[in-house]
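Whiteboard transcription, Tuesday session. T.W. wrote the structure tokens on the left side:
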């Protein structure tokens, strides 16, 4: 998981950008990038100030400086830069110039992002647009956490220990015996049956589950099953059951059913038809070069995957989504089996632990005295025996070591399939990016024609 912080830059903008672009920290500038400005400290600062002059001129904040730090060497420099760009794009929504640099000269890889405090979209400050109520830090941390989770930065090495839940779709004990497991299972089923989040809220109540959703609350969604005393927050059930993730999962299932994705992917295709690019020639020149690069990347992607048309690309997206869903279903079954083995192994270990007390009691010549001295242990043994009879009504107990080996093999299989899952997720991101790039590229061409521009 990454940690984040954000600070204001009130002076020496040129020096601040120059610091993060230090060649010694970024492997001679290999791990740097920029958006709507030059990748040069002096020129970027000048372009920041050029946009700033179009604003009100009030306020003394020139830029904002984000630091995003990763855990040790959990990511490669290339991955860190990619994640930093994704963070900047989601936080800034394509409306602010920024320079990003990934520093690799310390024991932990980290990103620096310096962005203009004034938006070139409406020439108003970041404080006015995004930080009223001082919510920018919370929003920054939330976006960074979501990106880290989506990219699998924190994995559970021993899921059988039950010390936490991984955020992958397949790591749920959806068929377990606890009320939390039953609640998760009911939510999972309702998600698959629902066409929208609003539909989900209606459907979950038909399963006799209370659901309270308040979009303006810190705790947005919570659930309660019959017999459950208090409500369970979505986050308490796991990251996968919080409101934003429920919405995403419904969209994913709908794509499988209809072939239409409800998600929009932010690309680097820049719409140069807006007024700011017509008045700021420096921005226009930069945008045209970036659009040429993106077009080249898009053509390369289509050629590499032997895709001849947008229809073929869409068909590939559907096939890949289907692969993902099949994988999720198989992993769900495997995880459920692991959970069942966990329960059996736990009870058999407890049985082994307390059976010697019962054996000694049977052999003792002073049973009443022995039972008095070891009352707790004998009571535990009798309780475990009663529970075992529910699992094994024929009174034949399985071999504990065999169950442990079976569980270890399943966990190894799950870890291998986890890698396959991550590959498919990355493939889907590339495909969705290509789909959105084509749409934006065509839209840009249409806009240029309407404005009378030459192609």
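and on the right, the sequence the group agreed on:
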């Amino acid at each position: 998981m990454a940690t984040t912080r954000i600070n204001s830059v009130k002076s020496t903008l040129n020096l601040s950008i120059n610091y993060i672009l230090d060649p010694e920290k970024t492997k001679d500038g290999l791990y740097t990038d920029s958006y709507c400005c030059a990748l040069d400290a002096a020129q970027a600062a000048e372009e920041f100030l050029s946009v700033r002059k179009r604003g009100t001129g009030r306020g003394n904040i020139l830029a904002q400086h984000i630091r995003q730090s990763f855990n040790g060497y959990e990511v490669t420099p290339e991955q860190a830069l990619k994640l930093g760009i994704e963070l900047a794009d989601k936080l800034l929504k394509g409306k602010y110039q920024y320079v990003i640099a990934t520093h690799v000269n310390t024991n932990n890889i980290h990103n620096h992002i310096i962005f203009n405090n004034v938006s070139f979209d409406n020439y108003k400050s970041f404080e006015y647009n995004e930080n009223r109520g001082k919510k920018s830090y919370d929003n920054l941390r939330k976006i960074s956490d979501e990106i880290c989770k989506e990219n699998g930065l924190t994995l559970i090495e021993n899921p059988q220990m039950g010390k936490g839940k991984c955020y992958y779709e397949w790591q749920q004990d959806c068929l377990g015996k606890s009320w939390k497991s039953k609640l998760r299972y009911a939510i999972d089923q309702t998600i698959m049956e629902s066409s929208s989040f609003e539909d989900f809220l209606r459907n979950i109540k038909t399963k006799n589950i209370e659901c309270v959703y308040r979009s303006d609350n810190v705790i947005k969604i919570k659930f309660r099953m019959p017999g459950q005393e208090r409500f369970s927050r979505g986050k308490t059930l796991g990251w996968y059951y919080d409101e934003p993730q429920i919405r995403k999962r419904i969209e994913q299932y709908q794509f499988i059913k209809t072939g239409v994705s409800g998600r929009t992917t932010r690309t680097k295709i820049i719409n140069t038809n807006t007024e700011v690019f017509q008045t700021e020639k420096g921005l226009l020149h930069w945008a045209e070069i970036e659009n040429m690069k993106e077009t080249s990347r898009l053509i390369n992607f289509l050629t590499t995957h032997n895709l001849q048309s947008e229809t073929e690309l869409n068909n590939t997206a559907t096939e890949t989504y289907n692969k993902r869903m099949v994988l999720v279903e198989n992993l769900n079954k495997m995880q459920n089996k692991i959970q069942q083995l966990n329960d059996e192994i736990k009870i058999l270990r407890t049985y082994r632990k307390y059976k010697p007390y019962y054996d000694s009691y049977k052999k003792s010549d002073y049973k009443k005295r022995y039972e008095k001295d070891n009352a707790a242990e004998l009571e535990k043994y009798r309780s475990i025996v009663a529970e075992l009879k529910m699992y094994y009504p024929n009174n034949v107990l399985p071999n504990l070591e065999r169950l442990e080996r079976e569980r270890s093999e399943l966990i190894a299989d799950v870890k291998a399939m986890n890698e396959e899952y991550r590959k498919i997720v990355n493939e889907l991101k590339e495909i969705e990016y290509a789909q959105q790039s084509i749409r934006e590229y065509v839209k840009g061409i249409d806009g240029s024609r309407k404005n009378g521009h030459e192609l």
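Someone added at the bottom: Residues 159-258 form one domain.
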